[in-house]
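My current task is to audit a protein record that another person submitted. Alongside the sequence sits a line of tokens, each denoting a local backbone shape. Please read both lines and tell me whether the tokens look consistent with the sequence. Do not assume that whoever made the record got everything right. Thanks in advance; the entry in question is below.
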Amino acid sequence: MREIKIMPCLDMKNGRVVKGIHFVDIRDAGDPVEHARFYQEEGADELAMLDIAATQENRKTRIEWVKNVSSVIDIPLTVGGGISSLEDIDLILGAGADKISMNSAAVNNPSLVSKAAAEFGKGRITIAVDARRNPQMPSGFELVISGGNKPVGKDAIEWAKRCEDLGAGCILPTSMDGDGTLKGYDIEFTRAVADAVSVPVVASGGAGKLEDFYAAVVEGGADILLAASVFHFRTFSIRQVKEFLKGKGLTVTL
């Protein structure tokens, strides 16, 4: 049985961890270095750090944030936000990240995915697939970019499949309908992506109770469980989540 991994997510803005609902209504959630250190000690398997304003503000991810966070952890760090070239990826990995996550740049320039996989290895390339429900799309999910602000008229599930074909080593689907709501992952969207690809899938957006994590694996087909609010505001500890999943018969590292 595959091992399920827990991945807290640091959404970054102005050097601070923040958390929003549906990608807006942003509030402060603390210092990134303190969070990173705490999550490693708590037993996180991986950590994500997403510069949520980089693309909208037309700038690159802040390298110093990556250096500061990576310096206090040993677990794999995935960094996303404003990454739009091979040079950007090289800088982020050079600053201490283990993997990068792209969204808007990959949609605008799909060849960047295949070039990045060839240059750095597919295991280091995650593609974030943000979507919202749209019945006009074949799968019912439309791809959105620019921090959820810009629908692009593409089917999100078809895009996830294409990303795997291009060389992505991991897919990170986030439903705008569920983000930050604490009402549970968008299981339908997560499952649709998991059924469409063979690479690991990260469940993201909306975890609010312990059962949500279990549902993301069993019903959603996810391999990695990303969450922010419930960890940042200490609703649950990572150990609590892992013990719950283990009690349900899933394989986790305590």
